[in-house]
Design a protein that fits this description.
This protein is an alpha+beta fold. The protein has one domain: Nuclear Transport Factor 2, Chain: A, CATH 3.10.450.50. About 25% of the residues lie in helices and about 40% in strands. It is built from three helices and seven strands. The N and C termini lie far apart (about 40 Å). InterPro entries: NTF2-like_dom_sf, SnoaL-like.
Length: about 130
């Protein structure tokens, strides 16, 4: 679990630094990712790159793990995070705790799901409801 914890912490750090290449290097080629600010899911590194580029052009999200990561059946890793979403002007749009559930494959992130929001496929997460 120590290696897993380091991998996931590195992914959050890269995301917060806007280091897309650094984050994508920690993921499988066919990684599955939720589009929290738009709704739906995407698959693949280039889709994530395009999504994050759009997202960061509209919002300033920052996510930090809060508690110990827990492993559940099927190798899923649950991480409770503090998510702060600001407008590009610096206004706080959302300040909340959310659950991220990671799937790993061969030491890389193969997927991430939003654990607290079962309906994210229908639309954006509440954290991104206010457009800047």
């Amino acid at each position: 679990m120590a290696d897993t914890k380091i991998l996931i912490e590195q992914a959050y750090s890269a995301f917060n630094k806007r280091d897309i290449d650094g984050a994508l290097a920690l993921m499988t080629r066919d990684v599955s990712w939720p589009k929290a600010s738009e709704g739906g899911k995407i698959v693949g590194k280039e889709e994530i790159r395009a999504y994050w580029t759009r997202q960061w052009g509209e919002f300033d999200p920052h996510v930090e793990p809060l508690a110990t990561m827990t492993e559940e059946e099927g190798g899923k890793i649950r991480v409770r995070v503090h998510q702060l979403v600001k407008s590009l002007r610096g206004d706080i749009l959302s300040d909340s705790e959310v659950l991220h559930v990671f799937t790993l494959n061969s030491g890389l992130i193969a997927g991430m799901d939003l654990g607290d929001e079962a309906d994210f496929i229908a639309g954006p997460s509440a954290a991104f409801a206010h457009r800047s």
